[in-house]
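note to self — DONT lose this again. spent like an hour looking for the file last time. sequence + predicted structure for the chain T wanted, 283 res
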Amino acid sequence: MERVLWIRLSAFAGIFVLMALWEAAAPRRRLTVAKPGRWFTNLSIIGLDNALVFLVAPGAAVATAVAAQAAGWGLLNRFLLPGPAAVVVGVLALDLVIYLQHLMFHAVPLLWRLHMVHHADLDIDVTTGLRFHPVEILVSLGIKVGAVAAIGPPVAAVVIFEVLLNATSMFNHGNVRMPPRLDRVFRLLVVTPDMHRVHHSVAIRETNSNFGFNFPWWDRIFGTYRAQPAAGHRGMTIGLAQFRDPSRLGFVSCLLLPVTGDPGAYAIDKSGMEPVRRERPEG
């Protein structure tokens, strides 16, 4: 278990530094809020999240996979797929669960109140990818543990999935510029920053699209894919319409947001007006 922890920490540190350097060298958008204050808030939330998970249930998903394998729980432990196939199927199945979980956090009013903390960030960059309310982190952990028990993926699949989810979340929230042709190729295999940034648009129909974290296929299969924001990536507004004052989005305010904040009309069943599209697509 200690080895798994070091793998995850090393991957986190490496991807975080690489994305931060890429953002500094080739930013996609000009930031609208002073970076030091935002990063203090976001990194404080991230630190609290990790401390809470470490205290409550460190390595819970991997431990569940070990227990499931020993007891024969889960679908994959019954079908006895070859090792590599079981790993691939396990990673894909867990990614589908995360996609459906993300949909649920947009559809259930109480869960949306928690998820607002992630969307209320007025800019989007590598730190946004890990900025979630601590209660949402615990709910997500419970869902993930239940999914591991039900699916029965190999331990290796769970480790790969956890590292991949952490890495791609930082990547696809990155404020980084990619050549359009490269983006079009990459988004066939992975959720790119330009694809996921649409999900952080203030426009309700755009917020309720592109729910994938690792792989882009679920959005295409289930009809939630949206290729580009109507206003273009440099012209779009990031965040939620009801939270526009940076001074009210500090660390403590974000922790209290689920009980003090207005949830707005962002639930999936309140899709809002279709955004007005630009006459020419942004290059």
